[in-house]
Amino acid sequence: MKTISYIFPIYNEAENIPLLYETVKDVTRPLTDRYKLQFVFVNDGSRDESLEQLKQIQEQDPSVVVVDFARNYGHQIAVTAGIDYADGDAIVIMDSDLQDPPRVSLDLIAKWEEGFDVVYAIRASRKDSLFKRATAHAFYWLLHSVADIHIPRNTGDFRLIDRRVAEELKRYTERNRFLRGMVSSIGFKQTGVYFDRDERNAGETGYPLRRMWAFALDGFFSFSSAPLKAISRLGYGMAILSLLGALYALTVKIFFPETVIDGWTFIVISVFLVGGIQLIMLGVLGGYIGRIYTEVQNRPLYSVQDVYAANSPRANG
Ligand code: UDP
Ligand code: MG
């Protein structure tokens, strides 16, 4: 019998865990005659009752594994740990706030049974704020136009991956993780199914604007060196502009010396402009250098405080 693992990253989801667990159990009941099921919850340093609830569930249900992080490492690392601890021949990754409806996982599994290795859930509609939709749209458009790989639009991390893909993912040891990009670049047979994304059931988003921004930068820097190329293009552009400016100044000086240029404005503006551009470009370099630094440090991705599992080879081994 093959195993299917579900992975749930948990950050302050105490209000959602009971309903999530119930719904997922209900939805997956028809699978139990064909598959062994496993549910891996990764507690990403929650500061509420999440861990206590998960431990309770785990005590009663041997198919539940709880991985408790030593602190909050972020969603992408939590999912990574889930993949490390999952035993499944297929692994379903989904959010724990019921925004990704558990019933859709059955569609993902059906596609996997047809022979696909990666099945991502595409958001046909979503109930996020206009701001979030607009920024997400702009981000994916930009990434799409500059990145070296094809990342399907309107997909989050809600997806199914085959064991082979999971094993490949484990060889991607980078610290600044943008999983959806990594999965795309791995290849294998990929497809998508459409679904309507729900609203968060309860609680607050763990992705405030600051984190969304950092996440977008990770995606960008990890999969594109376009900003680096943009620096030199801008440099060329500036050089040409200043050449034109110099030509203009010379022409005026030689042919119209009577039109005295009161150059103060020009000088001040260009000083600020050039200074500003240089700082932005330094920032771009800093973005890459900072990431190179964390990669070179080669620290472990996460530290696990405890694992609660009844019978999981990976969790107990
Ligand atoms: N999450 C996590 N660690 C974090 C932030 C979020 O494991 O530091 C989890 C969270 O519990 C949820 C998923 O990642 O299961 C998606 O987070 P959230 O719903 O807050 O993001 P949004 O849907 O608002 O983008
Ligand atoms: Mg959410």
Considering the chains and any ligands shown, give keywords for the structure.
317 residues; alpha/beta; Spore Coat Polysaccharide Biosynthesis Protein SpsA, Chain A; eight-stranded mixed β-sheet; 11 helices; binds uridine-5'-diphosphate; binds magnesium ion
Q: What does this 3D model show about the protein?
A:
The protein has 317 residues and is of the alpha/beta class. The chain folds into 2 domains: 2-208 and 300-308, Spore Coat Polysaccharide Biosynthesis Protein SpsA, Chain A (Alpha-Beta Complex); 226-297. It has 11 helices and 8 strands. Strands 7-5-6-4-1-2-3-8 form an 8-stranded mixed sheet, with helices on both faces. The model has no long low-confidence stretch (mean pLDDT 86).
